[in-house]
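2024-03-11 09:14:02 INFO receiving multi-entity request
2024-03-11 09:14:02 INFO entity count = two
2024-03-11 09:14:03 INFO echoing inputs for audit
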Amino acid sequence: MKYPKPLSDLSHELSLLPGIGPKLALRLAFFISQRGEEKNLSLIEALQNLKNIKKCSQCNALSETDPCEICSDPSRNNEILCVVSDVRDLWKIESTKSYSGRYFVLNSLIVPLEGIDPEKAGMTELFSLIRAKKPKEIVIAFDFSMEGQTTSLYIKERLSSQRDQLGYIPQLTRLAVGLSMGDNLGNTDEFTISQAILHRQKI
Amino acid sequence: MKYPKPLSDLSHELSLLPGIGPKLALRLAFFISQRGEEKNLSLIEALQNLKNIKKCSQCNALSETDPCEICSDPSRNNEILCVVSDVRDLWKIESTKSYSGRYFVLNSLIVPLEGIDPEKAGMTELFSLIRAKKPKEIVIAFDFSMEGQTTSLYIKERLSSQRDQLGYIPQLTRLAVGLSMGDNLGNTDEFTISQAILHRQKI
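2024-03-11 09:21:47 INFO inference complete, emitting structure
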């Protein structure tokens, strides 16, 4: 038995999305086909409106406006630049309300094995921005992974080798390493614990 | 931090679907916003094409055509009518390729507590069809639940009380009760086992 074609077509389209298997896809398609027409129109409209999302020409973040809300906010601190490898990390940091500087979103971390070299990762744009804005501090906020470390090291080396072109050396910082909320020592890896001891904080 | 509005709008629309929480909704919305435009157009088109799904005026099934493929297929056996409470049960039975009769899809099982009386469940249409087509056998294929039993009993009573109007009494059957593939006796309820013993089959 074939399902009605519109249903199996929608089910197929949904099964292309991450985390949606064929069974859930069919269930969703059936649900959508049975609910009121206006709700489907809202969903269609939301999909069509995605084309209004732009990349900010200054920081590379996704936004409805160019420059984005953050780049066009005069109250943000121009002296600190936070570099992230994914716009979702920017959103996550913003949600903590603990950072008020500027951002730059790389296209990706540097992953030589996948052919993502510094150029593809967006380093040219990052260094143009640094030359233009001369932030005093650059905060590296990457995942704590091999690629994160590699990319972080690349930025550090390039900053010191371009000292003359830049005319100064910005302070380079990274997110603190240590225990996370709810961690217990028994389940935490040795490296994290050794870093947490090294950078222990006064209470 | 607010996400770009088109993204949070789509994420909201997706979170209205069953089985999709806010986190998966955001992940899906982000994925959809980042993939190629044509793929989104296919998804939008699939959603728009849902309006081509009709209800078959004979059997109540969902189909692209009216009458549906099954009702308009002359090779199907007119003498058996299978009554289901959900079009997905029809699709499931068809996928087994073990039934070649006709169908009727109720709007719902009878659920008095939720105000779904025989009229709302679609009994008027079912009995008009029986009067018109006079099938020799009516196969009841409902979920094995309280509501399924109630609805099945209702059909049985109404058939015998309308014997004169109908001019005959069709044979009423139900799906066999017994062990399912892979069941072991230890985990099977007593009622199912007692039915499986009562209706034991020659091998």
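2024-03-11 09:21:48 INFO post-check: Chain A has a mean pLDDT of 92.
2024-03-11 09:21:48 INFO post-check: Residues 53 and 64 of chain A are 5 Å apart (CA to CA).
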